[in-house]
Amino acid sequence: MKTGRREFIGAASLAAACAPMSWPAQAIVRSTTLLDERVACDHALVIVFDERVADSRAFAFRSRTRGAHLVPMGHDIGVLWFQHLMPLVSLSGNTVAGLTRYADAFLLTRFAQGIGLRIAQRTAEAHAGPNTLVMWRLTAGNARTWS
User: Which PROSITE patterns does the entry link to (predicted)?
Assistant: First the structure.
């Protein structure tokens, strides 16, 4: 799956159009999350999203329509990484990506660097701050990268 600037802008514009997500859409996102299940197949796309940020929820919802598996961030980034994301990204060919705040993206990419994953990042804004959104992707070193 290729993700580029056009998809990023599309997700952001979708988020702006439907910022207050209706309760049926919230129920769909919650019902398709991957908290306790594992992605058993190779070459799966796992999307991490922040439930508190409308743009991140919209990005996740749009990704789900394209077949991605969703993982909500929750409140403990360490638990998210060690119990959910690290086992998923260590499977052959799986990719973990997300649209999160700068601080969360920073921590997740540092965890990923620690185990030798490839990292790609793009910020949605020209300046970095606590509420800046960052689109990021983590892949194993031998995995094919997106262009």
Answer: PROKAR_LIPOPROTEIN, TAT
